[in-house]
Structures are given as C-alpha cells and as structure tokens.
# Entry
Amino acid sequence: MVYLDTSALAKWYLNEPRSEDFAAWIQNQDDTHISTLTLVEMRCLLARRRRAGELSIALEQQAFVTLQDDIAQGFLISHSVDNHQVHGAIVLMARLSEYPLRTLDAIHLSIACELGANCLASADRVMLQTAEALGIEVVRFD
# Structure
C-alpha cells in the first residue's frame, strides 16, 4: 500500500520538476492512498500558485476537478481524517522530535501509519526522512 503526500501528488496534476518521473512511477502502482487532508492541501497549493501568476483560473479549476475525478474513479483511495490520527501526529512529533516535522506532514504520517502503508511517496525531504525513521519505504521525488 502506497500513501501519497501532496508534494508528490501535485506532480501528477501540474508540470513541476520530476513530474515525468512521478507520472512513470504512479502509472505502475495499484494501491495508492491519500486523505481528505490531501484535498485541502491541493486546493491551497493550486490557489497559491494562481495568485502567484503561475496558473490560470481555468487550469486551477481543471487540476482540482481532475483530482476529484481520480478519487471518484478509484484511481486514488481517499481516507477521512479523524481525531485519532491527529492525536497520533502529536505522538509522532514527540517520539521523533529530532526531525523538524511540520503539523500537516505529521498528520499525513499518522494516517499512513494507521493505514499500514508500507511505502510513502513525497517530495518533502523532512517527511521522507521521518518516514524512513518509522520504517516506511520511501519513494523520493525531491
């Protein structure tokens, strides 16, 4: 089971460095999971890039609709976030305090651990290092 971080998944919907690598990799995956937190982060990322002039309104909307379609078609399996996973993030941050893990990344890792993900794809170096410390195989797109 693979858990996808937003930093990697964005490469599927936007032309970014390593987008071609991500596209080649994800097309060979059978079991890709995200959370509802990913939807919030992707919405934020797209809006931020539109405000910065990197995306048109049409491209912003199309990218988000495509993400929603990928979930509806079962290409991405989305899981709800609950308080148990938020508390799990608190425990992870205390347990792995040597890593400068950000709040939402800690929640993503808590979700991945609870789901039993054996692999995490990300472009975030701190998240990748922390996942490795948890014994999760990582696929790097940084």
Notes: The radius of gyration is 15 Å. The chain has a mean pLDDT of 97. The domain at 2-140 is CATH 3.40.50.1010 (Rossmann fold). The first strand starts at residue 2 and ends at 4.
